[in-house]
Amino acid sequence: MKNIVLTGFMGSGKTTIGRLVAEKLNIDLVDTDSEIIKEFKLTIDQIFEIHGEKKFRECEKRVIERVSKLENVVISTGGGVVLDPENVNLLRKNGVIYFLYASPENILKRLKDDNTRPLLKNGDKLSNIIRLMNIRMPFYKNCDFEINTDILSPELAAEKIISIHMAKESKR
Questions:
Q1: Where's it mainly located?
Q2: 7 is in an annotated binding site
């Protein structure tokens, strides 16, 4: 089975839905942000603060190179992974990429008490969300499938991903 790759903006449900998909299919979940945290032995916030976004993205690329070679797993990526076309190509070689969409307003609601997101720290959170989403949306739109997490519970989103994936797999 091809990997199920989840991407989308922070707060779109990648980790939660990824966990549900992995549980239902009885396969492993690989969270690229967790892998980066293990490598640096720092939180994402600390990595950005100490090393900057450039070093974070370099490490993210190494992690993508490694996890994209795995088989039969769910891969939950960081929201900015799509900004590097090479990351997308690597993930697509052995996976199907699902973009988890959430509106800026819902992302704000989901992240309102979360102060660990380095790209949302300065200025108005909603403005930052909208600005970053506008930059990333063309990249997200290149994913294989879009799942709207505004209108689906995590459980229903997981079921929809599994349904799409199994239908796609049966045609291979």
A1: cytoplasm
A2: no
Would you say 32 is a known binding-site residue?
no
Evaluated on CA atoms 123, 36, 19, 78, the torsion sign reads positive
Indicate the pTM of the whole model. 0.91
Could you list the residue range(s) of the whole structural domain that residue 120 is in?
Answer: 3-170
Question: How far, in Å, CA of 84 to CA of 139, rounded?
Answer: 9
80 is in an annotated binding site: no
33-88 tens-digit pLDDT: 999 999 999 988 888 889 988 999 999 999 999 999 999 999 999 889 999 999 99
The number of domains in the chain is 1
Determine if residue 171 is labeled as part of a ligand binding site. no
- DSSP annotation of 70: -
Q: What is the pLDDT of residues 101-156, one digit of tens each?
A: 999 999 988 877 656 555 555 667 788 889 889 999 999 999 999 999 999 999 99
Ligand-binding annotation for 57, yes or no, is yes
- Cα separation, 110 vs 96, in Å, equals 26
16 annotated to bind ligand: yes
Is 116 within any annotated ligand binding site?
Answer: no
**Is residue 62 marked as binding?**
no
